[in-house]
Design brief:
208 residues, alpha+beta, Glutaredoxin, Glutathione S-transferase Yfyf (Class Pi), Chain A, domain 2, 48% helix
Length: 208
């Protein structure tokens, strides 16, 4: 019997974030590895995600795209995994705040930095993140002295925020400030993260 969950991904993509979230959820899932410029851009996959990008998930008849949305959706779809503060909890505010701050301002700032795009002082107010320094200062505040960004428990927000920080430091896009290093060191040791990384590494294309 096929699993109710399917992950569409590529091991060299943001799909690694979704894979980690899948492992934290702990439900059986199928995996479809999509190829850049091939199956990822084909009609069959564009019927799932018209952007022709990964990751995406299918849960029964429901399709969800965008990493932050996938993390939030899975946390709510499988509440028994305890990956989101309960509705009505004050911690829900930080959960939403930092999950979507990482998906919006941080992602945009890091991407523009990688592309060599610098925002002038006159244009800061036109961009959601202001400037890279502002985005990183806010992110640093969010994780300083904390194991988790939303209260005292690990959540889907940590999957996304942690992935952004870990990836950013690995590729030199985010400076290894002590608060970032300490926060990421605690998250990358999680068994679900290790399993996800091993599965994605095993799915990497083999050198010819």
């Amino acid at each position: 019997m096929a699993a109710q969950l399917t992950l569409y991904t590529n091991p060299m993509s943001r799909g690694r974030i979704a894979r980690w979230m899948m492992e934290e959820v702990g439900q059986p899932y199928d995996v479809e590895i999509m190829g850049y410029g091939g199956t990822m851009k084909g009609d069959a996959y564009r019927a799932i995600n018209p952007m022709g990008k990964v990751p995406a998930i299918r849960h029964g008849d429901v399709v969800v795209t965008e990493c932050a949305a996938i993390c939030a959706y899975l946390a709510d779809a499988f509440p028994e995994a305890g990956l989101a503060p309960p509705p009505g909890s004050p911690d829900r505010a930080d959960y939403y705040r930092w999950l979507f701050f990482a998906a919006g301002p941080v992602e945009a700032a890091v991407t523009n930095g990688a592309l060599g795009i610098e925002i002038s002082d006159e244009k800061k107010r036109m961009v959601g993140y202001g400037c890279m320094d502002d985005a990183l200062a806010a992110l640093e505040q969010a994780v300083t002295g904390k194991a988790f960004v939303a209260g005292g428990a690990f959540s889907a927000a940590d999957v996304y925020v942690g992935s952004q920080i870990g990836w950013g430091m690995q590729f030199g896009r985010i400076p290894p400030r002590p608060a970032f290093v300490a926060y990421w060191d605690g998250l990358k040791a999680r068994p679900a993260h290790k399993r996800a990384a091993e599965l994605d590494d095993a799915a990497m294309p083999k050198p010819e």
